[in-house]
């Protein structure tokens, strides 16, 4: 990584980071999946993480709410260090929403119950209040009329919008998106991206692993490019797409943009 | 003037595609192999059924005081009639059997109340699991509230079978869940304890467990610390089927996609919350057939308590077969036992199918 990009992956001194990775390393057995990740996100920033498959982008994102454990280095989220302390992990997970590639809605619960589960059990919100809030968010993702159905009865795009609403019901400070549109049919991608753009416009801190370069161009404050477990380049979308610094970035962009 | 559109009546469907003839043709005679199988099956039915009906119904004797009364050459159901009370209640005093009936009716009413929408299901479950057993125990054993005490050694027949089955089923399910979760735990000690328990129990026959419970344990316990044999046998049966249950449930836990665990974790649910609210409801639903399989197996295995000198339904029937007045009624006794076990197990199986349908929220689009 060039010094300039290093600076872009970090923040200016004095800026307060909501997510801070310092020399983070992770191994799957022998396989070194994250190599010396230094990376920070400030409040309200929209980050798009891209890179070829197996580059560690999902793994890095999943380290933020400790769905994956790192072995070396330090991760601070909202000032709390992610380590074996269960209290810390639970505290962070309350404040970090996550949307998965395969939606991961709970098939045995209705849409409404999917949304109210965590507010009721984790935040101890009264049921009535949780339901009102759930309906509010379902309204926002334009799916309120499906509240009493089960996830299996919805289309992929609808399920993913429900999953986003489920994340929002916890009133998170950060939203993580792990390839939210990769499992969707092409005609459903737009409805999900629209919801994400709306969310970005409202100032939500977002870390989004995606191959949707259009989304990156219009929404992201910074694009982070990863390859082989390293952050190769981090830059503003304009610079990233118009003037990529690194060979690997150029190769990646040529592969996904020209076909 | 408006012309009303009147469609001409549809033609009837082709003669040979509807009606009884078509149905028979489609289901019984659709191919040479099926024609052969149909004829063969009817031949077997012809060979077996008329003699069976003749024996069981036409030539049967329905009342009498001893085997001598059965002269018609058919089944001697009089034997079942005379011993019926004993088959149902064992040696439970005849004038006290209303207590057993009352407890059974209470249980049926309580379980049936699940069907009423307005009732708080959690409260009902608490009543069934915590209050009912105490009430039933007081009714069965007496010695309180002016009820005549009845020793557990006198409990028997279908009453004992049902008691062993119901207690075994109700207690082994939660224990099995805990063992299954323990076996999948990250904590090495919890995990090893569960693995050793499950594998040990599964490696020995139930008879051994019952023998241990009834004969060996009293030898090891110091004087005065001995407790009721029925209780020891109940614990033995429960532990035995819990080990099997644990493996069935573990299968269900493994079938739940990793994403479900991750989604629950990512929301900040604690381990127990995510298990109880997210994972177990799905896992248990998946393995209902396996769970009921274990239940049915357990229910039939209770007959083995005969080995340790307890007289359940089958035990009572075998004992009655030794009655000099009724020598030669073994067939009737076993036929009756078979019928009762079949009715109960078939009922369980149908009930489980209904539960499965009710809980199906469709993993797929429907």
Automatic annotation (TrEMBL), chain A:
Membrane topology: Peripheral membrane protein
Keywords, sorted A to Z: Amino-acid transport, ATP-binding, Nucleotide-binding, Transport
InterPro entries registered for this protein in UniProt: AAA+_ATPase (IPR003593), ABC_ATPase_HisP-typ (IPR030679), ABC_transporter-like_ATP-bd (IPR003439), ABC_transporter-like_CS (IPR017871), MetN_ABC_transporter-like (IPR050086), P-loop_NTPase (IPR027417)
The keyword Transport is annotated on this UniProt entry: yes
Subcellular location: Cell inner membrane
Any one Gene Ontology cellular component term annotated for this protein: plasma membrane
Pfam family, one: ABC_tran
One Gene Ontology molecular-function label: ATP hydrolysis activity
PANTHER family noted in UniProt: AMINO ACID IMPORT ATP-BINDING PROTEIN (PTHR43166), PHOSPHONATES IMPORT ATP-BINDING PROTEIN PHNC (PTHR43166:SF4)
Family statement: Belongs to the ABC transporter superfamily.
Entry protein name: Amino acid ABC transporter ATP-binding protein, PAAT family (TC 3.A.1.3.-)
Upper lineage: Bacteria, Pseudomonadati, Pseudomonadota, Gammaproteobacteria, Oceanospirillales
TrEMBL record, chain B:
Keyword entries, A-Z: Amino-acid transport, Cell membrane, Membrane, Transmembrane, Transmembrane helix, Transport
Membrane topology: Multi-pass membrane protein
Pfam families the UniProt entry points to: BPD_transp_1 (PF00528)
Entry's Gene Ontology BP terms: amino acid transport
GO CC, alphabetical: ATP-binding cassette (ABC) transporter complex
Protein localization: Cell inner membrane; Cell membrane
MF annotations from Gene Ontology: transmembrane transporter activity
Residues that span the membrane, as ranges: 35-57, 69-92, 98-116, 123-145, 157-181, 193-221, 233-253, 274-296, 333-351
Similarity-based family: Belongs to the binding-protein-dependent transport system permease family. HisMQ subfamily.
Protein's name according to its UniProt entry: Amino acid ABC transporter membrane protein 2, PAAT family (TC 3.A.1.3.-)
Organism: Marinomonas fungiae
């Amino acid at each position: 990584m060039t010094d300039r990009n290093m600076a872009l992956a970090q923040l200016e001194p004095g800026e307060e980071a909501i997510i801070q990775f310092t020399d983070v390393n992770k191994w799957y057995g022998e396989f070194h999946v994250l190599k010396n990740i230094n990376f920070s996100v400030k409040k309200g920033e929209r980050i798009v993480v891209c890179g070829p498959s197996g580059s560690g982008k999902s793994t890095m994102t999943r380290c933020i709410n400790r769905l994956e454990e790192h072995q070396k280095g330090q991760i601070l989220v909202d000032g709390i260090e992610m380590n074996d302390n269960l209290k810390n992990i639970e505290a962070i997970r309350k404040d970090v929403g996550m949307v998965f590639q395969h939606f991961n809605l709970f098939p045995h619960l209705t849409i409404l119950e999917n949304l109210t589960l965590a507010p009721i059990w984790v935040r101890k919100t009264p049921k009535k209040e949780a339901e009102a809030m759930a309906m509010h968010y379902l309204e926002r993702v334009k799916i309120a009329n499906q509240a009493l159905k089960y996830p299996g009865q919805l289309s992929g795009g609808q399920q993913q919008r429900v999953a986003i609403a489920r994340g929002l019901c916890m009133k998170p400070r950060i939203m993580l998106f792990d390839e939210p549109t990769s499992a969707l049919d092409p005609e459903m991608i737009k409805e999900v991206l629209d919801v994400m753009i709306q969310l970005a416009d409202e100032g939500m801190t977002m870390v989004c692993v995606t191959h949707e370069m259009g989304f990156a161009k219009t929404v992201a404050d910074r694009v982070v490019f990863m390859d082989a477990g390293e952050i190769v380049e981090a830059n503003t979308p304009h610079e990233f797409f118009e003037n990529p610094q690194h060979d690997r970035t150029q190769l990646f962009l040529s592969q996904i943009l020209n076909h | 003037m408006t012309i009303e559109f009147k469609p001409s009546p549809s033609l009837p469907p082709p003669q040979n595609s509807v009606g009884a003839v078509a149905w028979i043709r489609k289901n019984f005679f659709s191919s040479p192999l099926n024609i052969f199988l149909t004829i063969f099956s009817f031949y077997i039915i012809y060979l077996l059924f008329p003699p069976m009906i003749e024996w069981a119904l036409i030539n049967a004797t329905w009342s009498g005081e001893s085997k001598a009364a059965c002269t018609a050459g058919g089944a001697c159901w009089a034997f079942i009639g005379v011993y019926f009370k004993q088959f149902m209640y064992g040696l439970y005093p005849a004038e006290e059997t209303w207590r057993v009936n009352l407890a059974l009716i209470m249980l049926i009413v309580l379980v049936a109340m699940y069907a009423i929408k307005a009732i708080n299901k959690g409260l009902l479950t608490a009543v069934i699991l915590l209050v009912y057993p105490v009430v039933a125990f007081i009714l069965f054993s007496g010695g309180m509230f002016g009820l005549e005490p009845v020793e557990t050694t006198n409990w028997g027949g279908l009453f004992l079978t049902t008691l062993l089955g119901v207690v075994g089923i109700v207690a082994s399910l939660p224990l099995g869940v805990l063992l299954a979760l323990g076996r999948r735990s990250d904590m090495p000690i919890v995990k090893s304890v569960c693995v050793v328990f499950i594998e040990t129990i599964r490696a020995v026959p139930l008879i051994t467990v019952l023998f241990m419970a009834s004969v060996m344990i009293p030898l090891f316990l110091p004087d005065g610390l001995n407790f009721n044999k029925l209780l020891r046998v109940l614990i033995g049966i429960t532990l035995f089927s819990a080990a099997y249950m644990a493996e069935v449930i573990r299968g269900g836990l493994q079938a739940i996609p990793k994403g479900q665990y991750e989604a629950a974790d990512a929301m900040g649910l604690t381990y127990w919350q995510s298990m109880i609210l997210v994972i177990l409801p799905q896992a248990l639903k998946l393995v209902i057939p396996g769970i009921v399989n274990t239940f049915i197996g357990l229910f039939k295995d209770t007959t083995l308590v005969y080995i340790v000198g307890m007289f359940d339904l089958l035990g009572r029937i075998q004992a009655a077969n030794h009655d000099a007045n009724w020598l030669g009624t073994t067939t009737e006794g076993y036929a009756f036992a078979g019928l009762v076990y079949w009715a109960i197990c078939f009922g369980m199986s149908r009930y489980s199918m209904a539960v499965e349908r009710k809980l199906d929220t469709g993993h797929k689009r429907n």
